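Researcher: Before we compare anything, I want clean individual predictions. No alignment, no superposition, just each chain on its own. First chain goes here; please echo the sequence and then give the structure tokens.
Model: Echoing the first chain and its structure:
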Amino acid sequence: MIASLEGEIQAISDLSMVISVNGVGFKVNCPESFIIEHVAGDNVFVFTQLIVRENDLSLYGFGTEEERKFFNLLLMVDGIGPKAALNTLSKLALPELQYAIVTENIDLLSKVPGIGRKTAQKITLYLKDKVSGDALVEPTQLKVNENQADLLSALTNLGYSQIEAQKAIQHLPAEPKLSLEESLLACLNYLQRL
């Protein structure tokens, strides 16, 4: 099994990147949160999971061991395949996902494209006992303060993922203080450059 890869990113597409390792290019499917942090030419290290299917060998990569572990937990849920598991980790940051499972927040899980209410219920039912409830924080408290909660809500209502919205908010200048409208415009400009 290929447990990890370290090399230079040759190309990036929607949810995958080609990582060159000693002249061999590996196509690695990665969560959106990992992809948006990198550009072609970066050197990266990823924890990987090889998925073997009847007509397909696919490699999935993660920035942390915990993300890879969670990917494998999601695969144990009936109705969740590798693409749905990766999509879940792309649309919800790991703390959000843990929070949703422990608190049985079906609505939050259902926001992931391709995850309906029944599948969301299966996820909480199967994984609730496997996810620690220690030190959980609500999604709006993850990486934004109270003043930025409205901005986070506006960006997610415009169709951006929680991860994209939080990353854009983190890139806002600390000074001068911007109005909500100015902050939203700055975030949208940042997201268009990605």
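Researcher: Okay. Second chain, same rules.
Model: Second chain and its structure:
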Amino acid sequence: MNSYNSSYTSITLNDYFWDATIERVKESPIYDGSHRGKQANEVGFLGEIVAESWFNKHGLLFQDDRSKTTQDYILNKKFTLDVKTKDRTVVPKSNYDNSVPLYNHAHQRPNYYLFISLFRDKNIPENDIRRFKQACIVGAIDIQTLDSIGKKWKRGETDSSNGTKFWTDCINIQMSELIPLKKIKDIWAN
């Protein structure tokens, strides 16, 4: 298992991120079966924009492949990647989980998942994108490791360790089990 590096990358969100998210939301449908509708699109698109910013900052060449349902990006013409973003009211800790819904896991098989947590100010209304104040890029995992050590949950089950009741079947991986950003950046760059 990997040693979790608690010094994840934290990005203070600003008009650039919020405005780009609003534009993507306007151009995108709300998918059937979406648990949170427009809010799900906001969370997902904001996470993708944060990831793209991080790729650019670290010189990682990426191809936008979001028109497919199998992955979001191709990195350095070599690695497929999907971004999974979680909405939180607290900053992440090493024992927190990251989730991959299982409703599309059979056909969505990227080489890696990149996990991002959005810190939301719960005092700002849900219809205001500026409620998301900070993004934390917490790490990545390859799909083989996720499948072998991730914990699967069924819809309706409750995780007794944190009280989470699952709205859909999913596979969870703790942040302490993720590949730290410095290491994954080196893997993707080579």
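Researcher: What stands out in the second chain?
Model: DSSP finds four helices and nine strands in the chain. Additionally, Residues 9-189 form one domain.
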